[in-house]
Every structure is written in C-alpha cells, then in structure tokens.
Specification:
243 residues; Arc Repressor Mutant, subunit A; 2 domains; 5-stranded parallel β-sheet; 23% strand
Length: 243
C-alpha cells in the first residue's frame, strides 16, 4: 500500500485550505494547515521526526512575509532545510517570484489557480531526486546524499550532522563530483572542473586529495562507498548512498 504523503499548507485563507484538503485528500495526500508563519514554523520544529513531504507557503501571511519564512525554513537543520517548498501568492509581481526562487522555493503558483495545476506542480516537485538535482531546485544550497550533506553557503560537509574537516580545494573537488553524481569523471575532468586548468602529464595530485576525502568521509576508507574508483577511467561519486 502506498504511503499517504503529508502536505503542510501555511496559509491564512481557511476556505482555500479546507477546499484543498478535500481535493488533495481525493488524490492520496493528507493536508495539514497552519494559519500563520509562527504556527507553520512551530509545526516544523516541534515535529521534525514526522516532517511533511512538501510545504505549500503563502507569500502574504498575517504575521509576516512568506519570503522571510522561506528563508527561515532553508536555514533550519537538515533534513528540514531541504523540504520541497511551493510558494503561493496573489501578487503578480515577477520580482516576487524571482526572489522566492532565489530564497529556496522549488516552484511558484500564482493565485487564483486550478487545483489540478497545483496538484501537477506538487507531483513534479515530489518526483525530483533529493540531490544533486536538488542543487538547481530553487537555488537550494544544500546537497544531501544519505547521511552526508554538503552546505554550499557555509562551505562545509557533514555526516550525521557532524562537520568533517577538509580543505577548501577538497571541498571544491567534492562539490564538483557531487554535482555530477553517478557519472565517471577522469582525473583531467576533475582538475578542469576545480581549477579550470588542464592536468599535467603524470600529475597524481587528484588521487592524493581523493584519498584525503575518503579518510574524512568514508566509514572505511579502504572500502569506499561514496567516492568509488573506476579502474582505468577515474572516479564516480555515488548517486545513491547509505540512508
């Protein structure tokens, strides 16, 4: 039996919320409603272990701006910071849409809208892989791969929430690989992606940095599961990792 997905709607329009609860319920979704920014944030923080699958966030709230709340949600600890988020607004200013997406929204639906269109947009967002594709979803600046997360703004990498110490160059190397997760990358391609320079003949500096990344990030560096060697070709960053 398919698990019913939960949608948190942060919206002060009670009638709209009730209508959507009925409509989405007919399509396999459970809609929870918060009527203010404060109530929405409380729901997320108090029930982090039962986080919703997606947040519907109104731009105009009685106690604050949806844009500010979007920023606050993206600043929460993972996995809450990476929740799929769709903004709703009656304002037609394209600048609001751009700002919302830049702050981390995954999509933007103007009011009034057809429930069928909203449902289609929600499903499209929910179908997206968590990351690395998540990197381009609403300018999200956190990449997650199972227990590993890469914070592009803070330029740090964590496993189970604990920061691991790596150099700036190694962070750039890791990011370049994560953005291309699942693809085999040659040493030359990696060097070019990080430094914008061609790798000199017999240069094995990439191998050294890969070894140090494994020491920092792998449970067992001798049997790596995140950064894998493809003999005769290069390296691949595992797209699907441990939960």
């Amino acid at each position: 039996m398919t698990r019913q997905q939960t949608i948190l709607m942060i919206e002060d329009d009670q009638r709209l919320a009730a209508m959507l609860a009925t409509y989405l319920g007919q399509h396999g979704f459970n809609l929870e409603h918060a009527g203010s920014a404060k109530a929405g944030m409380q729901r997320l923080q108090q029930n982090a272990l039962s986080a919703p699958d997606l947040v519907l966030l109104d731009l105009m709230l009685p106690d604050g701006s949806g844009l500010d709340l979007c920023r606050q949600i993206r600043a929460l600890p993972p996995p809450l910071s990476a929740l799929p988020l769709v903004m709703l607004t009656a304002k037609g200013d394209p600048l609001d849409r751009v700002i919302g997406l830049e702050l981390g929204a995954d999509d933007y639906v103007p009011k009034p809208f057809e429930p069928r269109e909203l449902l289609a947009r929600m499903r499209a967002v929910l179908r997206r892989p968590p990351l690395p594709d998540g990197l381009s979803q609403g300018a999200r600046n956190l990449m997650r791969f199972g227990r590993l997360s890469i914070d592009l703004d803070a330029r740090c990498v964590r496993i189970d929430g604990q920061e691991r110490q790596i150099t700036a160059y190694q962070f750039d190397l890791l990011t370049a690989m994560a953005e291309r997760a699942g693809r085999v990358l040659t040493r030359e391609a990696l060097c070019d992606a990080v430094k914008g320079e061609q790798l000199e003949a017999f240069d094995r500096s990439i191998d050294v940095h890969i070894g140090r990344l494994r020491a920092a990030l792998e449970d067992d560096p001798r049997q790596p599961r995140r950064i894998i060697t493809v003999r005769g070709a290069g390296y691949v960053f595992a797209k699907v990792q441990d939960a």
